[in-house]
Specification:
single chain, alpha/beta, Alpha-Beta Plaits, Rossmann fold, 2 domains, seven-stranded mixed sheet, 27% strand, disordered C terminus
Length: 263
């Protein structure tokens, strides 16, 4: 019988020497293998383990709940956030009210790239929006994640190096394995109907699409935020407010000024 992976998270109640050894010994006695272990939050540890059957996990859970040195928080089949938490030693912050919104700050770019890469590897349609102030690292994170996921990326609209507005794709670019990147401001404020028709065609492809500035995108298209599978918010720090006043107040519609404005 093949072994099944599980995720365990516990909070340390009495931190004493040898606590981790006790946990490891318990797992060994139950013939459960440890895959990875790491701190995932202040005072918490997360483990990925391998067990032959569910009865081993039932016995493990029963024993862990009797230990006064720890408090069992989670024991379940691992989710993507669990795997990344153990890998990076911290949990991805998730909006309490909107479960599809995830928050990152600039010093978590490695975690963000890893998270996006895992999403990009998944097959089929996926629409991801990324919010953030200018020069916070949105586009660079998308491209780096594409490389990690071994995906070819295509800029449908962008201001990364210069203003890009595509009105058509060549035949081999209509590929569901490609990653399509759009800038919501460029696509809705500067593009013509031919570009918007191309956007509609791309949206119908069973492929991954990433839209920077999704709020602008939904304001000026038939799409809504409900159409997005994930919303990523990237800030320079936890206190930064994401605002588009700089866009609204800037005379960005004169070609030369817009070309030099990095979103």
């Amino acid at each position: 019988m093949s072994k099944k992976e599980w995720y365990i998270e516990y909070e340390i109640q009495k931190n004493r020497p040898g606590l981790l050894g006790d946990i490891a010994s318990l797992l060994g006695m139950l013939s459960i293998n440890i895959v990875t272990i790491n701190g995932v939050d202040e005072g918490r540890r997360g483990l990925l383990i391998l067990a032959k059957d569910d009865d081993q996990i039932v016995r493990l859970e029963s024993i862990l709940q009797t230990m006064d040195t720890i408090k069992l928080i989670k024991i379940r089949e691992p989710k993507l956030r669990d795997r990344l938490a153990v890998r990076h030693g911290r949990y991805i912050q998730r909006d309490a009210d909107d479960k599809k919104t995830f928050r990152f700050v600039r010093d978590e770019l490695g975690l963000l790239v890893d998270f996006l890469a895992e999403l990009f590897k998944q097959e089929g349609h996926k629409l991801i929006g990324i919010r953030g102030m200018p020069r916070v690292g949105k586009t660079e994170s998308i491209v780096a994640s594409s490389v990690c996921a071994n995906k070819r990326w295509l800029f449908v609209s962008s201001t990364l190096l210069k203003q890009t507005i595509r009105n058509q794709l060549i035949e081999d670019e209509y590929n569901e394995n490609n990653l399509f990147i759009l800038d919501g401001i460029v696509s809705t404020r500067r593009a013509n109907e031919r570009h918007l028709q191309l956007v509609r065609e791309i949206m119908r492809l069973p492929a991954v699409k990433v839209v920077e500035h999704p709020d602008f995108f939904v304001q000026n298209t038939e799409y809504t935020l409900d159409d997005f599978d994930y919303i990523i918010e990237l800030r320079n720090d936890h206190e930064e407010e994401i605002t588009y006043e700089v866009v609204e107040n800037h005379n960005m519609f004169s070609g030369s000024e817009f070309g030099g404005f990095d979103f």
